[in-house]
Every structure is written in structure tokens, then in C-alpha cells.
Amino acid sequence: MDSSTPEDEPTAFDPSVGGSMADRSADEAQRAAELAAAVDPTGLVQRTLLDRVGSPEALKSLDRSELPALCDELRSFLLDTVQATGGHLGSNLGVVELTVALHWVYDFGRDHIVLDTSHQSYPHKILTGRKDRFGSLRQTGGLCGFTNPHESPFDLFHLGHAGTSISLGVGLAIASASRHPDEDPNLRPQAVAVIGDASLGAGVAFEALNHAGARGERMLVVLNDNEWSIAQSVGALARYLSRIRTNRTLMRARQEIGNLIASIPVIGDKVDRTLDQVREVLRHAIISGHVFEELGVRYVGPLDGHDVLLLVDQLEKIRQLDGCILLHTLTQKGKGHPDASEHPERVHAAKPPNSIVKPAEAQARYTRESEKVLATAAQRCGTTLDSGISYTQAFGDAVLECARGDLRVHAITAGMPSGTGLGGFSKEFPTRFHDVGITEQHGIAMAAGMAKGGLRPIVAVYSTFLQRGYDQVFQEVALQELPVVFAMDRAGLVGQDGPTHNGVFDIAFQRIFPGFTLCAPRDATDMRRMLASALELDGPVGLRYPRGSCPGHERITESERAPMVPGRAEVLLDGQDVAVWAYGALVSEAILAAERLRERDIHITVVDARYAKPLDEELLSKHLRQHRTLITLEEHQRAGGFGSAVLEAQSRIGERACHVRTLGVPDAYQEHRTQREEQLAHCGLDAAGLERIVSTALRAVKRS
Ligand SMILES: Cc1ncc(C[n+]2csc(CCOP(=O)(O)OP(=O)(O)O)c2C)c(N)n1
Ligand SMILES: CC(=O)[C@@H](O)[C@H](O)COP(=O)(O)O
Ligand SMILES: [Mg+2]
User: How confident is the model over 171-189, as pLDDT tens digits?
Assistant: First the structure.
């Protein structure tokens, strides 16, 4: 039988699910409704104003004096719900007043709001009719943790990567001017971008300001400055904003003069033109230091971002102004949470308590895997399938070990020191640790410079955010054949964050560069060996591992394992019926499937492929000869991934009698689900899915 392409693969998942909220099954909708109802089962919490505000129109029907009380209710609602569901609590607690004020002054049925990254969109969701579903936030079938047009017309974009809101806003402003050429500019739909202090440091945000300032299109950029990224904001921009904040006297003077300036009409008769000149002179005398002003973006602020009435007041004035305005608001990340002052990083994202979010489906899956099956599988294959340390921690430990033995090893993160497991490294090697802020492009190009200079840089980055620096991966690193290691965390499905954060494209986009080595460890021991071996290579390396735990209690000792050599796979089980070549963390699922199949007297070969590039073509060729079916398994988009590499190799090698089936993420964006394991099961990438495919393949072989 000829090799199949990924497209004609029989699928164990439901291909209709993947992008649209409308496509959800009735079961999922039911679960979401139950979760939503679980938020306040007693119905005791009285939030009389919030209960009345089911839409932006309803908000506008409140009396202005009621807005502070509404904000209090909104904040207490967030504290109750998000601590139960998990989610970006700190960022949202900080933008309560800002969001209420924006919805009060603007009409986002007509005006356009873009929330940068959109992890701070919860108050916006609540004010736009989604309060009653809030208990389902980030759960399977429930509300998305980011803005999502499938969810509401008030969400213009599905975003999760930082820094692009101003560009999107400029585009919307251009569209508005172009589509309403004869309308009074005050009445045209207006664009508002809300961006955090750390996201403003992203290169793309500066590109947008550069353009917006020159064009002078009417739009508002709200800078929500809480001094924190996930960790503390870093860089010269953070220092600059801090100087503005701390110089309170100058701040007050600037604010008063700024108000005065804003109250002067801009264009008009002779008197107004004179005032215009006065205004410009004052502006330059008082606030000429502002980077934004120099770029042609009018700066207003800084304002207390928790004074909702002040914000409303200022926004009403700003709405009448021409040009690109930047409103600088000062807020506290996590405001209202007891940890906000001491530990803002802890409040960035609340972890859901297991009891509430463990979905029935995932629980069922875990109870199905009896301890006995796990233990015997483990014995045979040298590893147990219970949870060990996270892959992130395994990387954090491995990088420390490598750095202790080699002074040339430096670690780079783009604003994610703890998420990428570099906490220990930053403490032990502060001078060899570089948090460049949310600037992946810069971080990667800088790594290229460091490698050229004789260092061994490791860029620790979430797979999805590496995409931001793709051209630097190509030109500055790959084309120069430089030894930069990309340690790609969250490479695979990520559960609650969903499509913006699923890291399922990296094999495809790195595999095509000549000279790249691609590898994925199956467990913590191989993480250590693989990283050490990657640092020995002369070219770029992409090392990928998912959000999740390594298998616990490894039983194959290091000395018993096959050497870690690029292009060498490791055979874990020998069988005759079907060969499974698994890549990275999914090796565990292949082992578990093998064990279950063995109980049915079906014996499969399991290979830990280790390297997607170079592939072990010698072993592959042998297995293609020896098996009727060879299945590849990876936590990556099926198109272009490890399986595609195997198919391409088969077309070079020949051995076409073997039917190659590629299992990976189907050609659809995978929605958020409560657990990564649910997403794996949905895509047919768990042991049960593999077992099904093996059985189908064997039936097909028998028929042929
Ligand atoms: C391109 C990119 N890199 C990294 C991240 C991870 N990330 C998400 S939120 C965040 C911090 C954002 O800080 P800020 O913009 O100040 O917003 P805040 O959470 O403080 O409101 C980071 C680094 C991302 N979303 N996008
Ligand atoms: C908004 C954002 O990009 C991060 O906060 C992300 O949600 C972190 O997810 P992890 O929990 O996988 O670190
Ligand atoms: Mg911030």
C-alpha cells in the first residue's frame, strides 16, 4: 500500500471542532453552564449595580456617581470568579476603572477597542454581556481567556501575543477615516488601543507609534502602566516611565498645563491660531522630554488609573481631540488582592484549584489507567507514567548544570523568566542571565551576536512567542550557521490559553532551514543529555518540550540508554505488527498504548525518535522494511511536522510497501480546554487514540 499523506489520515478527533464557539457539542455547552452556575451557588453575594449592567447601554444608564461603586462590585466579582477558574487575575484587577471609564465614554458597538494581548479583557467581557458565563472562563466549552470574535462582536481580534494593539488601532483608524470621509471626525468611529507598560516595549509597538505619530490619524492609545510585566518590567522604557511616575511635582504641573493645553481649541480663526502657537510653545517647554511627544503622539497624563471619575472626565475631553493621543494611566497590578503589593508576580495568573476545574473527561481518563497497567508498562519500558517534575523544571535544572560546567553558556528570556524555568539560573548566574523584556526579535538577534562573539547562548522561549522572532531565527541565526539553542517550552497544546498559545508550528517553521538540528526529550534525564549535546553542536538547535510533567520514576539509567547523537533514534520496544515513531513527550503515550495492545496480543515497536532533524534514516529504512504500518506521533500540527519529515524521508528511501500514518494536531486551531490532556485526547494523540489507530491499521492490513 502507498504512503498516505496527512490529509487522507483517518482521524480520531472531531474535525468540526477547532475554531468556532458555535461548533461546540451539547455536552460541552452543558458543562460550561454548570461551571458558570458554580461561581456563586448560594446566590448570596449582592452586586446590585453589576447585576444591572448586562450591556454597555445598561452601563450608560447608571448615574455617573454610581461608577465607583460599580467598580468595587466588578473587582469583588473578579476576585471571586477568577480565583475559582484560574486566569490572569492581576492584570484584570488593575484595569477595572479604566475599562468602566472607556465603556462609559466610548460606544464600542461603533467605536473600536483593541486590548493588547487581551489577557486583561475580563472587565470588558463582563460589561459586554458575558457576566453570567464567567464561571466557565478558560474551561472546556467556556469563555475564552482572551478577546475572541467568535465569542462577542465587542471582541474584534483573537489576541494573546503582546505588542500589536497600536498597529491594529492605526489600521482601524485608517479604515474609519476612509469609510466615513464626510462625517464629522468627532462622530466617526474611533479606535482605542489599551497597552500595558511591558507590552509597549515590544518592537512592533514602537513601529506603530512611529507610524501613528507621523500620520496623525485620530486614535487613542491608553498606556496601562502598572510597572510589571509578568515579572518586574525591565529596560530603559520601564526606567523612563518610572521617572515620570516618581516626579510627582512635575507630574502635577504637567497635568495642569496639559489640561490647559487640551482645553485650547486647535484650529480656528486668528485668535485660535495664536492660542495654537502658545499651546505648542507650552507643550515643548513643559513636556518636550516625552519620547511620545517627540514622535508626534500627544501625551496626556500620568493619571490615577483607579479614579474612575477622573478617567471619565479626561476621556470625554480626549475623545474630541485630533491626532494620536497617548493617555498614560498609573494602576496597581492585582489591586484589591492581598498579595498585590508584596507579590505582584504571584497575582499575574491565578492557578485554578484542582477540585473545581478537573473536568469529568480528564478524571475519567486518569481513573481508567489503572496503577497496575502503568507499573508494568513502566517496568518493561524503563519509565513510569506517573507525573514527575515539569518539563520546565527539568530544563531549568539542565541549564544550570550546563552553565556550571561552561562559562560560555548564557540564558536569554523575553519577559518570561519564571515561565521558562530560568529563576534558578538568574540567581546563580545574574551576569549570564538576560531578560530583554517582550522583545523576542531583539533577544534572538542578540543571541546571534553573542554566539558570534564566542558564547553559547540559550534562548528560552515559549514556542508560540518564538514566532515573533522568526526572521531573526532565519537570517541572524540559521543563515549565519550560529550555535544558538532555542529551548522551546509550551511546545504543544497548552490547555486553558488555547489557540494563541498552542505551540504547534515550531517543527514546521524550523525544519526548513538548512543546518538546523531539531530534538525533543521524552523525560528529564534526556532533557539534560539533549541540552548538553545541543551545546556541543556548531549550528542552531531547536529543543522542544510541552507544558506538562515529565514521566516520574525513570528506570532506565543513563548508562543503559543509547548515546545522545543527532540523527540517532532509540528503540524502546520491539514488535512486529506496527511501528510507532513518537517524538518527545508523547513517547509515554506510545508506551502506554503498547502495553494495552500487548494485553490483546498485539505487539508494536516503539521508537523514541529523539531528532526530527536529522532523522535516523538508517533505522527508519529498516523499520519501513520490517513493518506493514509505521505511525508517527507528535504534539505539533500534522502538516509540516515530524510526520511530514518521515514521509519525505520515505519518498527518498523508497520502501513504499509500508503504510506511513502521521498523527498530529489536525488542520484546525485547537480551542482552549481545561486541561492539555483533554486537547490531546480530542486530537487523538493520547494512548487511547493511538490504540484506536493501531487497531484500524491492523484491520486494514488484514483486509488487504
Ligand atoms: C510576544 C509575547 N511575548 C510574551 C508574552 C507573554 N506575556 C503575556 S502577558 C505578559 C506581560 C504583559 O505585561 P504588560 O503589558 O505590562 O501587561 P500587564 O499584565 O502588566 O497588565 C507577557 C510577557 C506574550 N503574551 N506575547
Ligand atoms: C498571557 C500570557 O501569555 C501568559 O501569562 C500565559 O498565559 C502564561 O501561561 P503559562 O501558565 O503557560 O505560563
Ligand atoms: Mg504591566
Answer: 999 999 999 989 888 889 9
Count Cβ atoms below 10 Å from residue 506 Cβ, excluding itself.
27
Separation of 203 CA from ligand 1 center, angstroms?
Answer: 13
The vertex-276 CA angle with 270 and 279, nearest 5°, equals 150
Tens digit of pLDDT for each residue in 456-465? Answer: 999 999 999 9
| Residues carrying an active site annotation | 333, 440, 468
Show which of 501, 528, 552 is a domain's final residue: 552
ipTM value > 0.95: yes
Q: Do residues 411 and 503 both lie within one domain?
A: yes
Instruction: State the distance from the centre of ligand 2 to the C-alpha of 461, rounded, in angstroms.
Output: 12
Q: Is 463 in the pocket of ligand 1 (CB under 6 A)?
A: no
195 and 302: one domain? yes
256 labeled binding residue: no
My answer on whether 121 and 247 are in the same domain is: yes
Question: What is the number of the ligand 2 atom nearest to the C-alpha of 419?
Answer: 13
- What's the domain count of the chain? 3
**What would the pLDDT profile of 427-440 be if each residue is shown by its tens digit?**
999 999 999 999 99
219 with 296, same domain: the answer is: yes
* Cα–Cα distance for residue pair 63/53, rounded to 1 Å: 12
Where a domain ends, among 519, 552, 585? 552
Give, using CA atoms, the residue closest to atom 23 of ligand 1: 415
Each residue of 96-105: b (16+ CB within 10 Å) or e? bbbbbbbbbb
Atom of ligand 2 nearest to the CA of 230: 5
Distance CA 165, CA 513 (A): 31
Domain that includes residue 491, residue range: 387-552
- Residues whose CB is under 5 A from ligand 3 (ion)? 196-198, 226, 228
Please check whether residues 519 and 578 belong to one and the same domain: no
